[in-house]
Amino acid sequence: SPVGTSVTVRDLFYNPPARRKFLKSPMREGELVRQTVIRYSLAYPAVAFRLVVGGRETYVAPPATPLERIGTALGRKVAAEMVEVAWEAADLRIWGYVSRPTIGRRDRRAQFFFVNGRPVRSGLLAVMLERPYAGRLPPERRPLAVIHIRLDHHLVDVNVHPRKAEVRLSQERSVYGVVTRAVEAALAPYPRQEGEFPALEWPFAGVLVEPGVVREERAEYIAGGLEPLGQLQNAYIVARSREGLVIVDQHAAHEQVLFERLLGGEGGRSLSPPVRVELTAREAELLESYLGPLADLGMEVEPFGEHTFLVRSLPAPLAEQEPRALLDTLLEELPRCRRLDPEAVRERLAMKAACSAAVKAGDFLTVEQMQALLDDLTASWSPATCPHGRPAFVLLTVEELERRFMRRYVPR
Questions:
Q1: What's the pTM?
Q2: Could you tell me the residue range of the domain that residue 43 belongs to?
Q3: Residue 209: its pLDDT value, please?
Q4: What's the CATH code of the domain at 126?
Q5: Least enclosed by CB within 10 Å: which of 11, 101, 134, 405?
């Protein structure tokens, strides 16, 4: 065969001790290296990869087709359950493979995204990938995927993350929306299963017409914007849309908005001066293990003594939060993150922080505050539910109102 380029990496960090105390066990660090090699091998299936740990080959991937490389990295049984994704328009190309609804995993470890050949992490991309699986895959299961996005390099900013693990696209919303459409097209042979979730009940049971007219709706029903009409019980925002009447759970809506912003790579807001916090020995040990995921969210925390830390920045969406209170909230969640992969840890912390910082049921909102929240919700990626899966809004259409009042519906 023709001579190519061979890259060998040995003892990459053998002499810089600065971060040594933050390293995990050799077995764990070896697994992280292996995961990195697997990601790049999926990005470049035509390139051979060979990983040797302790004199033993732990991963060998000869040049292959993309599907064959998936079989090497994730297993042949997985590769047999993958369907091709292909979408091309103008300067944008989406391609790769996603799993049939017959298989799924509890986490997102088998979801791989590449932008112009660069492995990236993106909670928003994961959300857009999973939307077409609603009604096809049980809610507690996650699809497997290897998705490549190729577009003009001028539309990609790779400098939004210190480790280049995230990118920002100048037309992010439209690009990620294409991912949903491409996956939906690939899953077309697998119909959705109706009746998987209980319908929301209409409260006026005595009215002699069909029940179930208030329902959770998809993003397109609020795409035209929402106008606040008032607040109900200081918990729900009643709003008008082009489709009818929308009732918004203010906590769920704000929680989803904050969650998406935290995963969107907005970075941190520096604190001047930094906030000094004292922790117990157990809390300090726990926190030191998760300084990386916190920094990924924009919360920079660094050791400043045996059990003392400095909070140097807060996530931009949470810049108004009290630093110690936010840190305490996240410390409560860290014990539940021990067995999770880095992306799952990041999502879990973002979910906890968003829930804590979001407006609560019982909070009074001015008209201006309601409008700002509704605008943020309509601009979000997945406005129908909060991160925990609860509905963020329900819609009562004009047609349904006409039926309730026994009027003849005339489309306007």
A1: 0.57
A2: 20-68
A3: 34
A4: 3.30.230.10
A5: 11
